[in-house]
Amino acid sequence: MGLLKLLVVAGLVVKSTCSSNLPDFCTISFVESSFPAPDFFQGLELIAGSVTAQPVTNFTALPDSTHPGATGRNFCNVTFAYRHVGRPSDRVNLWLYLPSPAQFKNRFLATGGGGLSVTLGARGLATGLPYGAASITTDAGFGGFDSDLSRVILYGSGAMNYDALIAYSYRAMHEMTVLGKELTRKFYSSSNLTKIYSYFHGCSEGGREGMSQVQRYGTTFDGVSVGSPAIRHPIFHYHGPLAQRKHDYYPSVCELARITADAIAFCDPLDGKTDGVVARTDLCFARFNASSSIGNPYNCSAVPQLGQPPIAGTVSAKAAVVAAETWRGMYDSKNKLVHPFYAPSVDFSDSVTVFNPATNQLEPYPNPLSPAVVNLLIKEVYSATLPLDEVSPDVVREWVNDAMSKYMSTIFTLWPDLTPFKSNGGKMIVWHGEADAMIPAVSSTMYQDKIRKTMYPGLGVQQGYAEMAKWNKLFLVPGGSHCDPGTVDPLGVVKPNNAAWPTEVLKSLMEWVEEGKDFERLEGIVQGGEKKGEKEGICGFPLRPVWGSNTSGGNGKGKGKGKGKGKGQQQDDEGEELQCVFDQQSFEFFTPKLDSFLVDAY
Ligand SMILES: *[C@@H]1O[C@H](CO)[C@@H](O)[C@H](O)[C@H]1NC(C)=O
Ligand SMILES: *[C@@H]1O[C@H](CO)[C@@H](O)[C@H](O)[C@H]1NC(C)=O
Ligand SMILES: *[C@@H]1O[C@H](CO)[C@@H](O)[C@H](O)[C@H]1NC(C)=O
Ligand SMILES: *[C@@H]1O[C@H](CO)[C@@H](O)[C@H](O)[C@H]1NC(C)=O
Ligand SMILES: *[C@@H]1O[C@H](CO)[C@@H](O)[C@H](O)[C@H]1NC(C)=O
Ligand SMILES: *[C@@H]1O[C@H](CO)[C@@H](O)[C@H](O)[C@H]1NC(C)=O
Ligand SMILES: [Ca+2]
């Protein structure tokens, strides 16, 4: 705390010696004069003549899922490139938005990518604008900001480009951050005493990139915001298609959507508040039985992107079996868990089927990321196809085993000792939509628990988490989907979400880092319904949400322990309070053992 205070005080000595007129300093020569010294980062050399710099004025950053947007932004739009010594054809492009001195708030923001890309380009850079942060992104040397790992990972089938692999895994982010921080300091002629706070923000693959830095370079960031991290890369999306094949039934997305709707209707009130949001997927998993959907009607218009004609019918017993099998998680032939599960209230967007007009039948359609990752990283071949016939849970287990032995030190981002980050005073907020259909929320809870067990072995569960929350907090966002509060399901229906979403996670992080403003619940903004726009807290794991006293009748004052025995649905009453409670069964639900693996795989 003392150190933090000191840094905050130092941060007040904001002094800029350069002109505050944007066109005056947003020039190629001024940017070149702000370059890190040639020996600043050994092994890297800036590419002469690579700089571009253009002043941008009165720019509007549109609101995005994790920032509120901003108007009237003035910044210098800069790109430049560097190469690794000894690799003359190498070119890594960096791209920065450097706010005008008047708008710069002594903040640096590294941004991450998504899918197989390490950059979101302009969309990611805009994240820094509302916060007066110099923001930066890299193409990792993959050939431009619209390229990705799939274009460079293999020199040819069987010949892996390990430089690209390592760049993607962690190294490109690190180089970008170190160079970007120094350039930022020099660009604003900041004195050595001025604290420039350093942040990371990213979701999915971007979240993994942030985690890779926390695990490896504990002193580069003061604050890190990690959303739905893809830390178990390569991730596999085969549980849905395999469940369908096992029962030889390929339900339409329409039939599956009906089951999801039934699950949400059933599970919504279990959290004590009937608002269309399932805040307790653990209770939903334990109690909803897909059989209860059998016979319920569905009727959907065409889904052109899946080639599907209009379809109507009633939920079949086979569809119910397939749904239950999908939710169960992936089990191997010895009935051991290979892949974590999804809750019934999470939509089936990772389990869609496509209509084949040639056979007039629905067919399984694994998420294309799976064959891509398996072909490139496991089989090391350039191929777009991977027949589902070649896949089974036992095969998936062996892929994970192979991938672990091959990539544990690169793309698997699971190192559980974060002591250097903690010791350096780093703060981390991890957020994960509880209804994420791409990467199950349980992936983040399992990793969080691994950190807890590693770093606080002597403490009990709740005490361990309480200690860890001083620098590392995980929030499961009720109803939240993958990096986004709302979802568009495979039917093209935008799902309303009446829950809070952490739109301003960076604001919470910056206040925590810069002002020492600690918090238990992450501030979210209600996205829909009557309370749209209002602030609402999100519980920190392992505590779980319960609304009000959750007793029958639902008119309680909301002061109970959330253990009420009443039954029946409860309406959302004014005055019903959110409580965050520890629940042993819920905790166990979120920390399963993937016992298909002899090594502690997850
Ligand atoms: C800035 O942009 C807004 C709309 O985007 C416009 O209304 C305003 O006039 C602009 N201001 C200046 C100084 O150009
Ligand atoms: C920033 O510069 C890049 C590269 O020159 C360009 O593609 C992009 O359009 C610029 N962005 C803005 C907001 O001017
Ligand atoms: C700031 O730090 C750099 C590198 O340590 C040093 O070369 C420089 O003299 C310092 N400047 C001031 C004003 O202290
Ligand atoms: C679900 O309900 C069906 C029909 O009532 C029943 O046969 C089955 O055992 C139930 N499954 C579970 C897991 O309770
Ligand atoms: C499905 O919905 C359409 C449009 O609302 C309607 O015309 C049609 O009769 C419905 N089909 C069935 C089988 O209910
Ligand atoms: C809320 O009450 C219902 C009905 O008694 C119960 O089934 C459910 O478990 C309760 N939820 C919590 C979180 O305690
Ligand atoms: Ca609810």
**What ligands does this structure carry?**
2-acetamido-2-deoxy-beta-D-glucopyranose, calcium ion
- Estimate the strand proportion: 15-25%
Give the overall shape: globular
- CATH C-level of the largest domain: Alpha Beta
- Spans where pLDDT lies below 50 across 5 or more residues: 1-18, 552-574
Fraction of helical residues: 25-40%
CATH topology of the largest domain: Rossmann fold
Which structural class do you get from the secondary structure elements? Answer: alpha+beta
Largest sheet: 10 strands, mixed
Count of helical stretches? 17
Describe this protein's structure:
The chain has two domains: 2-230 and 427-519, Rossmann fold (3-Layer(aba) Sandwich); 239-408, no CATH class. It starts with a helix and ends in a 12-residue tail after the last helix. 29% of the residues lie in helices and 20% in strands. It is of the alpha+beta class and 602 residues long. It is built from 17 helices and 25 strands. Strands 1, 2, 3, 4, 5, 6, 9, 10, 17 and 18 form a ten-stranded mixed β-sheet that branches. The chain has a three-stranded antiparallel β-sheet with strand order 21-22-23, with no helix packed on it. Bound molecules: 2-acetamido-2-deoxy-beta-D-glucopyranose (6 copies) and calcium ion (CA). One 2-acetamido-2-deoxy-beta-D-glucopyranose binds next to loops. Its EC number is 3.1.1.-.
